[in-house]
């Protein structure tokens, strides 16, 4: 585990959330009215008078350190390290009266480890086939971070630039995203010739589990377009389409069929309903209930 000094902790605690978002993640900041802001990802998370409160979850705080821990899922040490060393500019902020095209967000990727032993062991322990793991490493979609040995799942834009990174702990339950991650460009495998369809999953591991099952059945998993939605949430309004899916459909105009492999729980069902309502009449959609079956279990059944 990493170590942070009392001086670093003190410095991190001085940074308020509004200053942090303006400097490091301006795309996430949305002006509501007056001196009140919310975040693009969570519209019930309000920032005002030096405090923030995520009303839908009943949590809040004052600092960016609180936000990274309580909302983004960072450990205390990871949150301090993400804040210390950054340059923050608490200059007066004037919101744009007209929406402008957002500049690419600054993605702060964890340092890569020289080897991926922990990542490979963890993913294979979750039932992911070795060939898939190696493919993702060789194509730059996956690596192991240091010093925490998290699995880092990368998402890239149309020119191949990393724009999103999901983090998954190999020695605990940690889940998070790298600071500056843009959910429009989530983890994806779409290197095949294109069949006019895309399979949708909540997470990168769900995606790789499905690809493993295809491989076990003798199918060429590279022929299908597979897209992680970087998590799903209960839509705040009807017809909400996840950012990752909207961007994918924009980049792949030939897509005609969607296969929804979302979890068969309340959030998964409502997210699927939102997608189907939001894209009704535009695409053929198939809802395939996923019961969180791990590839490892299916591999055992196949034997």
Summarize the structure in words:
- With about 300 residues, the protein is α+β, with helices and mostly antiparallel strands.
- The chain folds into 2 domains: about 5-85, Alpha-Beta Complex (DNA Primase, Chain A); about 115-300, Dna Topoisomerase Vi A Subunit, Chain: A, domain 2.
- The protein is built from 10 helices and 14 strands.
- The strands form 3 sheets. The protein has a 5-stranded antiparallel β-sheet with strand order 1-2-3-4-5, covered by helices on one side. A 5-stranded mixed β-sheet has the order 10-12-11-13-14.
- Strand 13, helix 9 and strand 14 form a beta-alpha-beta unit.
- Helix 1 crosses helix 4 (about 75-85) and helix 7 packs parallel to helix 10.
- The longest helix has 13 residues, at about 205-215.
- The chain starts with 5 loop residues before the first helix and ends with a helix.
- The model is unreliable at about 90-100 and about 290-303 (pLDDT under 50).
Question: What descriptive keywords fit this protein?
Answer:
single chain, 303 residues, alpha+beta, DNA Primase, Chain A, Dna Topoisomerase Vi A Subunit, Chain: A, domain 2, 2 domains, five-stranded antiparallel β-sheet, five-stranded mixed β-sheet, 10 helices, 19% strand
Q: What's the layout of helices and strands?
A:
Layout: H1 6-13, H2 17-24, E1 29-33, E2 36-39, E3 45-48, E4 51-54, E5 59-61, H3 64-70, H4 76-83, H5 117-125, H6 130-138, E6 142-144, E7 151-156, E8 162-168, E9 175-177, E10 188-189, E11 197-201, H7 204-216, E12 226-228, H8 243-251, E13 257-260, H9 266-278, E14 284-287, H10 295-302
Parallel strand pairs: 11-12, 11-13, 13-14
Antiparallel strand pairs: 1-2, 2-3, 3-4, 4-5, 6-7, 7-8, 8-9, 10-12
Helix pairs in contact: 1-4, 2-3, 3-4, 7-10
